Amino acid sequence: MRPPGNGAARLLSGAGLAAALLLPTALPAQAAPPSRVPAADGKKGQELPGMPSALDPEAEEVVCTPASRETAKKQDWSRQRLDLDRLHQHSTGAGVTVALIGTGVAPGAAGLKGRVTADGDAADDCVGSGTFLAGLIAGTGGDSPRLAGVAPEAKILALRGTDRRGAASADLVVDALRAATEARAEVIAVAVALPRQDAALSSACLLYTS
């Protein structure tokens, strides 16, 4: 029996999500900061710290990614390429729930407060990657509306597909897909990468998104 729903949810894999949002490649923990990101005006963008996709699995102590003290001030090339200013004239994602399967999302993050549902472990984003992605998807931009996400009025359903250090788990992703479908999320974004194909996960993708 298929879970109840008003139609198939749109499933975005990690690669699909990156393509849709034109995200930069995720950086490993403790990587050197990337070079300056080009701004929309063609000049050099400001240098922002890199975002790890996972923490060191061999470290004795889990040290969470600290909040950045840097504030983005310019539109980067990816926002310009997506032409979000024009997109927002047609839709801002109001009434849409995006289930984000990743490292979790901090419910009180700037630009997301009041629009994130994150129960249990999903509210503990030690890595920071999930919260970063949630901002790209549905962030308001705060005092800088031109830096808003793709759908700044959408709601985020945060689901964990990794452990606290960011190591992906096929079992967790399967459970998250089930929860996203039961919650009737219109879009399911899977922002984790698994090292090998998993039969149970492949079956879940067909079952919960068709």
Describe the structure using short key phrases:
single chain; 210 residues; alpha/beta; Rossmann fold; 6 helices; disordered N terminus
Describe this structure in words.
This protein has one domain (10-25, 74-208): Peptidase S8/S53 domain (Rossmann fold). Helix content is 26%, strand content 10%. It has 6 helices and 5 strands. A 5-stranded parallel β-sheet has the order 1-5-2-4-3, sandwiched between helices. α5 packs parallel to α6 (199-208). The radius of gyration is 17 Å and the shape is globular.
- Given the structure, what is the number of helices? 6
DSSP helix fraction: 25-40%
> Main sheet?
5 strands, parallel
Please state the CA-atom Rg, rounded to the nearest Å. 17 Å
Rounded mean pLDDT score = 80
* β-strand amount: 5-15%
CATH C-level class: Alpha Beta
Name the CATH architecture.
Answer: 3-Layer(aba) Sandwich
Number of strands: 5
Overview in brief:
The protein has one domain: Peptidase S8/S53 domain (Rossmann fold).
Fold blueprint:
Blueprint: E1 10-12, H1 14-21, H2 77-82, H3 84-90, E2 97-102, E3 116-117, H4 129-138, E4 155-160, H5 170-182, E5 187-190, H6 199-208
Parallel strand pairs: 1-5, 2-4, 2-5, 3-4
Helix pairs in contact: 5-6
